[in-house]
Structures are given as C-alpha cells and as structure tokens.
Design a protein that fits this description.
The complex is a heterodimer of chains A (408) and B (212).
Chain A lengths: L1 H22 L24 H19 L8 H15 L1 H4 L3 E5 L6 E3 L4 E5 H6 L3 H16 L2 H12 L2 H5 L8 H8 L8 H18 L5 H20 L16 H20 L6 H8 L3 H9 L4 H12 L8 H14 L4 H19 L6 H12 L3 H14 L6 H7 L4
Parallel strand pairs in A: 1-3
Antiparallel strand pairs in A: 2-3
Chain B lengths: L8 H12 L2 H9 L3 E4 L4 E3 L5 E4 L4 E4 L7 E5 L7 E8 L25 H16 L4 E11 L2 E10 L8 E10 L2 E10 L3 H14 L2 E2 L4
Antiparallel strand pairs in B: 1-4, 2-3, 3-11, 4-5, 5-6, 6-10, 7-8, 8-9, 9-10
Helix pairs in contact in B: 1-2
Classes of the chains: A mainly alpha (408), B alpha+beta (212).
Chain lengths: 408, 212
C-alpha cells in the first residue's frame, strides 16, 4: 500500500491538470432522499448521473478484477466468507454483493457502490474469530447500503478540492485492489460515516447472534499493531494518520468509547457467539500461507504483535504453528541475538507439537538448521537440515539444502 | 504492469503520467528514457562493476538505472522480457531502490547470509518492491556464477493491474563479500520459454574482471 502513497505524491500535478476538466461536468445532484430504494434491494439501479457514473466506473474495474492473478479462488474459503457476510446481513441483502478475496497481506476490505466486495487476506489473518470478520463485513456493508462513497463523492465535488479529487480519478494502471486503499477502503470515510457504519455493524452483529463487543476489539488490535510496527521501525505510528478511525481528536476517542459502550449494553441483553472454532477451522489450510506472507513483509514489530495476539495471554496459546512463525520472524530479521531467539522458538515448536500430538511442521527443522548454521553451530545445523530433508525429501530447495548439509 | 525492472517509483510514474498527463509531457518522459544497443558478441562490464558478460544476441540496454549497481537489458521491450544485473551489492545495501526507507524498508544484504538466505532475501525484497504477495520461489539448486559457488532459483509472480503471470530464473553468488545477482523474467506465455536459453547463455558468460 505504500506504493500508493508514493503514487499519490507523484500524481498531485496530474490531478491539478485533471481537475478543471472534471469541473466542467454536471453540477452535484442534491443528496438522495431517505425514501429512495437502498442499493441492497434486489433490482436496484443507480439513481442520477453521478451514481450512474460511479457504477459505470466500478463495473469496468470489476471486469478487470475478475481476471486478476491476485484473487484467491479457493471455493471453500470464498464460500465461508460469503456465508459469514450472508449470515450477518441476511441472504436477501447479501445477494446485492459479489465477493472477491485478494491475496494481499494488509488489513483492508471494501464494498464499492455497485456491490463489488473486496476482502484482503491480511484481514483474515488479523481477525481472532468469526464475529470479528462479521463486524468488518457489517461495517463495510453499512457504508455500501448508505451510499457513503456517493456522498463522499458529492461532498468532494462541492468543494472542488484538487487534492481530494485525486482520490476519485480512476487510475487504470493500479486496478481496483489498490484503489480501494484510496477510495471506498476502510480508511476513506469521514467520521460521521464511520459512526454510522459502527452503529450499523453492531446492529447487524446483534441481529445475526454474534458478540457485538468484537466490533470495537478489532480497532483496538489494529491500533496496537500499527504502534508496534512504528516502534520497531522508528517512525510515527500510522494509526492517527487518517483522522477517521484512530484520530487523537477527542471526537474519535469518544467514537471508540461510544462503540464499546453500545456493544457492552447490547451484550448484556444477549452476549452472542464469537464462533472462534469455526473461524480457525475455515482458515486452517490457508493460515500457513497467510502468516508466511506477513513474515515476508519484514515488518518485525507488527508481526510480533500479531503473533502474540493470536497466541493470547495463556502461554499454552503458543501452538507449534505460532512458535514456528516466531522462529521464522527472528531468523529472517537476523540481527544480533535473533538466531538464538529463533532456535528457542523452533525448539519450543517441536516440543509443543510433541505435546499436542500432531508434531511441528517439517519446515521447523529447516529453520532450526539454518539458524544454527548462522551461529556457527555447523554440525548441529547440518543434522537438523538432514532431519528436514528426511521429513520432506521433495522440498523445492532439497538440492541446495543437501549440498549445504554435506559433511559432519 | 509492474515487473521487477519497474519495481521503482520513478519508473512507475512513467506509464501513469502517460495516461493522465497531456501528450507533450508524456513525450518528454519517453525522450528522457533512451535505450542503447548491445550487439551480440559485445563484452560489457555491467552496472559499472567488475562483472563482465558477453552478449548473446542483440539486446537493448536501459540507460536509466534503478540503483548505481544495476543494469537492465531487454530484447522485446520492458515488460516482455528483462535481464537484470544487480552487481557488487555491499553489506547493508538493499537489492532494489528503496521506495519508502522508513515505513517499508527493503531487507539489507549481509555477506554472512547462507545460500538459502539469499533466496529468501531475494523473495522478500521482490514482494515488498512489487507490493505483491503473489510471488513464489520454485525450484532452487546449487549453481555457479562467474566461477564462484552460488545458487539458482526459478520464481513466478503476478502483480496488480497487469493480469499476466510471469516467470523468472535468477542466479546469485557472493564474491569477495559482495552479492552478484542476474535475473531473467518474462510473461509465462511465450516470452519466458523463448528467452530463457539466451538469458542463461549470458549468465554463463559472466566473469569477474579487474575494475578499470
């Protein structure tokens, strides 16, 4: 997503050129009356020129999105997320949306005005249970149903602010997945719209029988993760950057407070369910790939925080998988002391695997061997690599590893 | 279309500007990015380094460099095939140009890296530079580069807004505490298979010569 930041900066001059052109088009339509049909109703068609234009653009983008090689096509995982959405908002309203799951290791999701729903795999990695996923989907659905993108579009047109216009110029080269970080993504809306989406989200959660308290938990987790990333990298946390979700502005703090209080009150009447087991089961096959994508981002602070939240406060929460991921994280950073930490994590993973009965994944021995070799513990390192090759003889790097493991 | 060669902000802005900006500005951008020809049989020290290769077939060499230590050649045009030389990378340096050093830093090279670490470092660098998680390293095998033991790997990737699957092969070695890496990548359809033998022939010709 940072490529987008770069692009945005570079495009300012382009936007200045483009804005007079845009100003020539038809004036803003009056805000849609509340009595108008909702976009979630079957057979809904865009109302007025502006909305038609937005739909035209989004339909075009969606056509390209369908061809994207970044889409996760696994029917089981897509089916599960779709089911959660439909369970949250009901089958009828859910029919107005089309789900696209995109392999991108960041936290984001969006619903475009025409019903195109995009979920990043990085979101799935960060949700602790099904109720949290439902909260995000319910939140985005409210933005969609209340036509927030259209409202935002109208507001911006009224101000004819060149910089804001920028975010509405379609950038064909970028495609829809990146553009949702600019338009219609989680960070795009105004405070009022966020309040509306928050309220919508917990109502949907409660009605679907999910624990409404999970809605505010997500934003707290995400804020803490961004703090952790910033701390290790030595820059200011991004969590307050957009003024929307995490602004230090009292109104936003109040917004979080309101959300928590409302949810707590609702939970008193009916605590609802989190469906954590179901969530874990649905993600089981994908989890190793998603955590691998995250580790490869080389975001040490954020990833370490993420692993700790996934493990939870109980030391027993550190499963063999999580410990393996922790080993990989330290080994891949490779600073002084990191290889020792990695070895401890891999050994703990092997132990946790033995205790749980399933064993650790074979790659644990690979990591252990490589970390030992980096510390000059050559013989033990080679032994661990041979152990790995015995467990996974057809590994893609088997030829290289067996060359490295030769000799005592 | 974002490829390894285009994994730098400056190059990214070229096609974008061409879409948004009026024609004269676009024309200027094209003029500022000329190519020079490398004839088959030419011997060239790539990236102003001490690594020389002999061209097999004719190539177009981009005079715009991603970093001081890189050089890119193409036969059919950037985006259709790319032969990238990343040469003489020192301890603490990144593979590609840093797009956002603070918030999205690229991992740094360390001569203490094992051959497997080089592979992981290459993959992580490419994923960050391309902002794509659809990047997989496939088969990895021991190899020689310029007579030094190293590693060869196959990889495949896709980026957004391009909708093409790409494949590549890279060869790397640490020579005298510095990293030398040559990559070839092209769309999986036609160009990868068509260009690979020539690209490997250029890789095979690599040797270390004295710096002038």
């Amino acid at each position: 997503m940072s490529a987008l930041r770069q692009l945005t900066a570079g495009l300012i001059s382009a936007a200045l050129i483009a804005s007079p052109l845009a100003a020539q088009s038809t004036p803003a339509q009056p805000v849609a009356a509340a009595s108008k049909p909702l976009p979630s109703v079957a057979g809904y068609r865009p109302q007025g020129k502006l909305e038609e234009g937005l739909w035209f653009e989004m339909d075009e983008q969606e056509r390209q999105l369908k061809q994207s090689k970044l889409l996760v096509t696994d029917p089981a995982l897509n089916g599960y997320i779709r089911d959660v959405l439909c369970r949250t908002v009901g089958a009828e309203r859910c029919a107005a949306t089309r789900l696209y799951l995109v392999r991108t290791p960041y936290f984001n999701a969006s619903m475009a005005p025409n019903g195109t729903t995009i979920v990043y795999t990085g979101l799935l990695l960060r949700m602790r249970d099904e109720a949290q996923l439902a909260a995000v989907l319910g939140h985005e659905f409210t933005h969609f149903e209340q036509r927030h993108t259209l409202r935002l579009f109208k507001d911006i047109r009224a101000k004819t602010d060149a910089l804001s216009w920028l975010s509405f110029i379609p950038i064909p080269y970028l495609g829809m997945i990146s553009q949702i970080a600019l338009i219609g993504g989680i960070y795009a809306f105004s405070r009022d719209m966020e309040r509306e989406a928050d309220a919508g989200s917990i109502q949907e959660l409660a009605r679907a029988g999910y624990d409404p308290r999970e809605a505010s938990a997500i934003w707290e987790q995400l804020g803490a993760e961004q703090d952790a990333t910033a701390k290790v990298r030595g820059h200011k946390s991004q969590k307050n950057k957009n003024g929307g979700l995490f602004a230090t502005h009292p109104k936003s703090t109040e917004r979080m407070q309101t959300l928590r209080e409302k949810a707590n009150a609702m939970a008193l009447a009916d605590p609802g369910v989190t469906r954590a087991q179901e969530y874990r089961a649905a993600l089981e096959d994908w989890w190793p790939k998603l955590i691998d994508d995250q580790i490869k981002l080389q975001d040490f602070g954020g990833t370490e925080y993420l692993l700790a939240t996934l493990a939870g406060p109980d030391p027993a929460g550190w499963t063999a998988d999580l410990l393996y991921a922790r080993g990989e994280l330290y080994r891949s950073r490779g600073l002084a002391g990191d290889f020792e930490q990695a070895i401890a994590a891999y050994e703990a993973a092997i132990e946790a695997g033995r205790r749980a009965g399933g064993g650790a994944i074979p790659e644990t021995w690979r990591g252990l061997g490589l970390a030992r070799m980096r510390l000059g513990q050559t013989a033990e390192g080679k032994a661990a690599l041979r152990d790995y090759l015995a467990r996974k003889p057809a590994a893609e790097d088997a030829l290289l590893l067996s060359a490295m493991a030769q000799g005592a | 279309m974002k490829t390894l060669r285009l994994a730098l902000a400056a190059a990214l802005l070229v096609p974008l500007a061409a879409v948004v900006a009026p024609a004269p500005a676009a024309a200027q951008l094209v003029l500022s990015n000329p190519w020079k020809i490398v004839r088959g049989g030419d011997v060239r020290k790539v990236g102003k380094s001490d690594l020389a290769v002999t061209a097999v077939g004719d190539w177009n060499r981009a005079t715009q460099r991603q970093t001081g230590e890189s050089e890119n050649w193409t036969q059919n045009g950037a985006g259709l095939d790319d032969l990238g030389f990343y040469v003489g990378i020192k301890k603490g340096e990144a593979l590609f140009r840093q797009r956002d050093k603070k918030k999205d830093p690229l991992p740094k090279f360390d001569p203490a890296m094992l051959p497997t670490d080089i592979v992981e470092w290459f993959e992580n660098s490419a994923r960050i530079a391309l902002t794509s998680a659809v990047f997989e390293v496939g088969a990895v095998r021991p190899a020689q580069l310029a007579g030094h033991p190293g590693v060869e790997m196959d990889f495949s990737y896709a980026t957004e807004g391009d909708n093409l699957e790409r494949k590549g092969t890279a060869r790397a070695a640490v020579i005298g505490q510095r990293l030398y890496l040559i990559t070839f990548d092209a769309p999986k359809i036609h160009y990868y298979d068509a260009g690979l033998p020539t690209a490997l022939a250029v890789m095979n010709s690599a040797r270390i010569v004295g710096k002038k």
